[in-house]
Amino acid sequence: MRFDWGFFWKSLFTPSEPFLNGLVLTIVISVVAMVLAIVVGLIVALMRRSHLAVLRWCAGVYIWVIRGTPLLVQLVLIYTGLAAVGLYQFSDVSLLGLSLKAAVQAAIIGLMVNESAYIAEIIRAGLDSVPKGQFEAAASLGMKPGKVMRWIIVPQALRVMVPPLGNSFNGMMKTTSVLSVIGVSEMFLVTQSISSYTFHTFEIFIVAAIYYLALTTIWTFIQANIESRLAHQLGIEQPIRITQRLLGARRGAPAVAARG
Amino acid sequence: MNSKESTTTATAEQAGAPVVSVRGASRTLGGRKVLDDVWLDVMRGQVVVLVGPSGAGKTTLLRSLNHLETVDSGEILIAGVPIGHQDLTSGKKVSTSELALRRREIGFVFQHFNLFPHMTAAENVWNAPVRVLGTPKKDARRDAIALLDRVGLADKAEARPSQLSGGQQQRVAIARALAMRPKVMLFDEPTSALDVEMVGEVLAVMRELALEDMTMLVVTHEMRFAREVADRIIVMDAGRIIEDAPPDQLFSNPQHERTKAFLSAID
């Protein structure tokens, strides 16, 4: 085996500047796309629960189409397709002193659209998980619908929503590697180019894998923290050991005991 | 608008107008009449117990009083103010937020408590006064502790619903409804979901409320409570009120065949 340990350690502990930039871009795109996807997902979820059939129908079609087509196809359509038919061409913009490349904008929009369809369903399931009696109790106390949502329903729905939302984000960080097809210089594309001019394909991709693993592992810790805070709020103490989370074999979250 | 509302209410009460007034309420569900031309007036301070076989429409009637159920026709007035999305006298639509405003004066106690599980007992009680009435948190909290004390749970103020027994949860639920200073309290089978040994503590709280002249409508199968506390017992059957009498009269001399059948069945 010709494994260049020297190159490996160097790439791992003193990564080149392009590699670090790729890492940062991966994180930034994931976070921005996720935040936007939650906003859009919430809107779509509320549309699905609307009294107006038109809104329900639109949201349903959106979810059906987006979930039923590959992200890769959506990305190419948004970035290359729209420009090809002369509908919209992304161009570099500078925002708050930072320049935002055309491909990065398309990437964020593509990921946002794709993820929002899944998140809409997560939010809907979360809201549906709150028993009808909670709406009734809040309404009987004279709360208006907005306040019922804000103070009674959402805090309870969050507990159900956070685990799948966290998993979505975890997936999103890995999915950013797909963005290389539209030429976003995130971690994967940088790794690929390093590989092509050093020929240390195995070493550098192992390094990339370790960085992806580090990202998702750190996020798992953050997610565990958020979940235990929420559980604490509901008076449920059920610590899931972090090894269980990382290595699998995690039992499903318990149903909320003795719902008021 | 608020001041106008309270003046109409005040005059209504001075004139001895009913706190609860149901005028010809009907509702059909799946071809079956769950409410069939119900007329009912409840005066201030009265305790009315609704009894009858299951499916008679007691719970539907009670829930309609708070617009948790809608009626197809007829009118429901609480303290002189119509409840529902359509103001039948003026024909005007009532907005959801206006409806929420009107619901504040009606306390509702559910069979399954429906406490908010993400809040402590005290928060359950002070939450609505703060969010809905805009009461300063400090005052609302103090009132909440006083209310919890009244239902015998001052020591459980910081407990979560999941840490309380069924009887304790129901008492917190009563305190929560009282925190909005309602003009009328509606109880929908408040002890049906409780273990036998906890029924007494909830009924004791309700008894005390009755003594304090709270206007109350109670759907229950607790006949001893009905006999001792009620001013009137209303018997419903197939969506209709078939008998409405003080307990002594009803138990000793029931008028309706169905009432006799019902009373003998539960004895």
Describe the structure.
- The complex is a heterodimer of chains A (260) and B (267).
- With 260 residues, chain A is an all-alpha fold.
- In chain A, 72% of the residues lie in helices and 2% in strands.
- Chain A contains ten helices and two strands, in the order ααααββαααααα.
- Chain A has helices at residues 5-13, 17-48, 53-67, 71-84, 102-128, 132-140, 145-175, 187-198, 201-233, 242-247; strands spanning 93-95, 98-100.
- Chain A has a two-stranded antiparallel ribbon.
- The longest helix of chain A has 33 residues, at 201-233.
- Chain B is an alpha/beta fold.
- Chain B has helices at 2-14, 58-65, 96-103, 121-133, 137-150, 166-178, 196-211, 223-229, 247-252, 257-266; strands at 20-29, 32-42, 47-51, 73-78, 81-82, 106-109, 184-188, 215-219, 232-237, 240-245.
- Chain B is globular.
- In chain B, α4 (121-133) packs across α5 (137-150) and α4 (121-133) packs parallel to α6.
- In chain B, β9 and β10 (240-245) form a beta hairpin.
Taking the sheet with the most strands of chain B, its summary is: 6 strands, mixed
Mean pLDDT of chain A: 89
Low-confidence stretches of chain B: 1-13
Kindly, what is the distance between the CA atoms of the first and last residues of chain A, rounded to a whole number of angstroms?
63 Å
Alpha-carbon Rg of chain A, integer: 22 Å
- In terms of DSSP E residues, the strand content of chain B is 15-25%
Oligomer: heterodimer
Specify the overall morphology of chain B: globular
Q: Quick one: which chains have the greatest interface?
A: A-B, 27 and 35 residues
Helix content of chain B: 40-55%
- Determine the N-to-C terminus distance of chain B: 50 Å
Instruction: Give the strand order, joined by hyphens, for the main sheet of chain B.
Output: 6-7-8-3-9-10
- Tally the beta strands of chain B: 10
Largest sheet of chain A: 2 strands, antiparallel
What's the overall geometry of chain A? globular
Number of helices of chain B: 10
Number of helices of chain A: 10
- Contiguous uncertain segments of 5+ residues of chain A: 253-260
Given helix and strand content, the structural type of chain A is mainly alpha
How are helices and strands ordered from N to C of chain B?
A: HEEEHEEHEHHHEHEHEEHH
Strand content of chain A: under 5%
